[in-house]
Amino acid sequence: MSAVRRWNRTSTIVLIVLTLHALMVIFPFVWMIYSTFKTNKEFMRSVWSFPTSLNFDAYIGAWSGGALGSYAVNSLIIMAGATIITVLVSTLAGYALAIYRPRWMPAVELSLTAAMAIPAYVALVPLVVMLRTAGLLDTHLGVILPTAAFNVPVSIFIMQAFFNTLPRELFDAGRVDGASEWMIFRVIALPIARPAMFTVGIVNMIWVWNDFLFPVVFINNPARKTLPVGLTDFVGEHVTNYPVMLAAILMAAIAPLILFIFFERQITAALIGGAVKE
Amino acid sequence: MQLEVLHKLFGEETVKLKSVLIAGASLALSTFPATAGELTFWHAYAGQQDKVDFINFALEAFAKKHPDITLDVVAAEQSAYKTKLNTAMASGNPPDVFYTLPGGFLNAFVKGGQMYALDQDLAKDGWRESFLESAIAQTSKDGHTYAVPVDVDSVVFWYDKALFAEKGWTVPKTYDELMALAEKIKADGLVPFALGNKDSWPATFWFQYMEMRLKGSGVVASFVNGDANASLGPEGEKAFEKVAEIAKSEYFPTGFNGMSDQEANMLFLNGQAAILLNGTWQIGASADAPEGFDLGYFAFPTVAGGAGDQSDVLAGVAASFGISEKAENKSDAVTLLKFLSSPEVMTKYVELRKTMVTVKGATTEAAAGPVLYGISNDLMNAAGHLDSFYDTAMPPAATNTYYTALQGALDGSVTPADAAKRLEGALKDNK
User: Fold this and answer.
1) pLDDT of amino acid B14
2) What is the ipTM of this complex?
C-alpha cells in the first residue's frame, strides 16, 4: 500500500519534470510560429506578445524576398550527391578494411585519422584553387566532392566498426560454397550492412543539409545557393526583420520535417545506434 | 517497407550518381571567364532591406547608363562575405571590383600587392576632391589610395526623448553627470545602458571614447602608421578601468557579453534600457520602434581632466570599393567606381540607408532627415578631430587581442592593467 503511494508520488514528480521539459522544448517552436504573424513593429514592442491580427505578410515577404524553392532543390541535390558518394565509398572501404585486414591497414587508418584532423577552414584556399583548375568552382559538383571527401573518413570508421562485429564464418561459408569475393560482398555483406549504411546516410544527410561554409565559399551564382546560405538573405548586419526571417526559416524547415516524419524510426534508431557498441 | 524503399534507392545509386555527374559537368561549362566589357563585381549589400534597395537602384541605373558594360554580380551578407572574399583573394581568384572594409582588412590585401592603386584616376576630373579628405585617408596606405570610401558611421549616445521627458531626466554634459544619471535610471528599475557585446565590437565604442577623451584622437592610427612614439599611455589602463567600473556598477544589462547587439537594441527600443552608445545605423534600426518612441542623440560627454580634445567624435569609413590588381579591364572598373561614388548615387544612398556618405555635399538635409543631418552638421562639423574605429583600423590579428582583452576587462577576468598591456603589445607586433 505504502509502496504504491510512494511510487505515485515519484511518478507525479517525474511527470511534472517531463512536462516542464516538454514545454521548454516545444515553446520555441510555438513562439516561432505565432511570431511570424506579427509585424516587425509589434515584434520590437514585445518579443513574447501574441499577434494582434493574423497577417501573412511575413510569409509573402519571405517567399518573394528569396528563392526558397530553388534553394531547397539545390540543397537536396547537394545532400543526395554527397550522401550517396559517402555511403558508397565508406561501405566498400569499411568492408575491405574490416574483412581483408591488409598489412598496410594501420597506414590507411592513420591517414584517415589525419584527414579528420584537418579543419575545413584551413583547406578552403587550396580547395578553391583545385576546384577552379578543374572547372568545378560555382557548380553543385564542386560542393558535393569536397563535402563527401571531408565526411568519408569518419563514415569509413563507422562502417569498419560495424563489419568488425560480424562473425567471419559468415564469409568463409560463402567462400567454401565457391562464391566470388564480389558475390560475398553483394549477397552476404550488403544486406546485413543496411542498418549501418542507414546510420551513415542519415548522419551525412544532416551534416550536408546544415553545412554553410563550403556552399557559401564555392557557390557564386545566386541560382545555385543552398538553403542555409539563402537564409542569410534575411539576416541584416544591424537591422533584421524578425517575422520575415522566422517565416523563411519555418518554410525552409518543411523539407527536413517531411523527411523526418517518413523516416522517424530509422533516424532515431540510427542516432542511438552509434551511442552503444553491441 | 521503408527498407524496401531504401533498397530501391541504393539499387539505383549508380544511375543517380551518373545523372549528378552529368548535371555537374553541364553546370561547369556554363561558367565563362570575364572578357572585355565584362566585370565581376562582389558586394555585401545583402540581407538588410535598405542595403538591397540601394544596390538594386545603383545596378539598374548603371545598366541604363553603361549598357556596354556587363556586370557579373555576386552578393553575400556581411559576415559570410568576408570569408568569401578572403578565400577568393588568398586563392588568387579576386573579383575585378569589390566591396571591402577600410583599414586593416583592406591593408592586408594592399600588403599582398592585390589592390590597384587609384592615384592616377583620382587625380583626373577632380575625382579625389569630391571626397572628404579625412575619408580618403582611411583607404590610403603609404601615400597611395587603394579604394574609394563610401559611407561614414559615427558613434553617439542614443535615447528616447519621450522616455526622458516622462521620467524628467536631462541629457548629461559631463561624464560625472552621465554616471549620476545612470544611477538614477538604475534606481528606477531600468537598465541604464543597453549593450550586447557577443560580437565584441559594441563595447569597443566605450573604450575608444574614454581613450579619446583621456589621451586624444589618433592613438591607434599612430601605431598603424608605424610611429615610433606610438603608445596607449597610462590612459589606456585608465580607460579600461572606467569601462570595467560601469560593468561592475551593473549599468549594462545582465549577461551583456553573451547578448547580441540586436537583442540589446530590442531592450532599448521597447524601453527596458534607457541609453545606447551606438553607430548612426541606429537610425535605421529604430525605424520599427513602437509608437511614441522619439529617437534623440547626444555627444559623448566631456571627461574632467582629460587631455584629449573633448569635442572629438568617433567616426569612420564603414565601407569602400576597390579594384583588384589582376583585373584585366581596369578602365571599365574605374567607370563603375566613378558611377558608384557619383553625387546622384551617393545622395540616393543617404536617402535609402540613412547613413552619411564620404562624397562632399551628398549628405543633404532632405535625404538625411533631421537626426542624421543634425549629427553630420552640428556634431561632426564642430568636432576637433574624427577618430576612426580602432577595431577596423588595426590589423585583424591585433583586433582579436583587442576584443578578448576588452571582454575580459568587462567581465573582470582580466585586470585593466593587463588588458592595456596586451593591446599595446598586439599593436606593436602587428603593423
Assistant:
1) 35
2) 0.80
